[in-house]
Design brief:
mainly alpha; two-stranded antiparallel ribbon; 8 helices
Amino acid sequence: MDEFDRLLYEGSAQLPPELSELAPPRPWKKPIGQICWGLALITITLNFFGLNILLPAVGTALLWLGLAPLRRENGGFRFAYVCATLYAVLRLTIILLQATPLDHWLAGLISGEWNTTTGPVPLYNALWTVLLQLVLVFTVGGLWQGLKEVFRQAGQKPRTASAGGLVILEVLLIPMALIGMEGWLLVGPVLILWICLIVSLRKISKSLDQAGYALKPDPMRVSG
């Protein structure tokens, strides 16, 4: 036995485990998880300690970060990414307006009230709510179409019913907000259905990983 063979035998105990024992890569887990958490923080807000501003802001960032690595996969993801960017810009605009007198000036310019079951609200606020929710609907719709295209490219039947259900539910949230629905008997079933759809959407990442469809890495520019 020569010196090279002897070194191989002595170091065999320090070799890494077999590749079959390692966990398989899950490239879809992180982006889909960020999208689900983003939608959760955007939709479910708490009106105390400033969480009504902080939680949607964090959710908007997570939604954008989740769609960013997917935008080169197909047109659906690209459309969702553009809508998520627009949603983030609108959210930031609202925060900046609320910190300046310009917000009160715009509220006075768009005078009027919108009547809900809980009482009248400024028409200015109602229009902002509808605009934000519409952009979110388009974002989830792009996500839905993007996921369907990925399953087709992987040669599998699309299993994206949860994403389609989220689109419908996000659309229904617009009239619910305009009506001013409150109370657990009315909002509770919708909330439970929404949670089930989010959990089901989260499981789509596992299906995509098992299908063997890998994400395309984004090209990066580096200096010389």
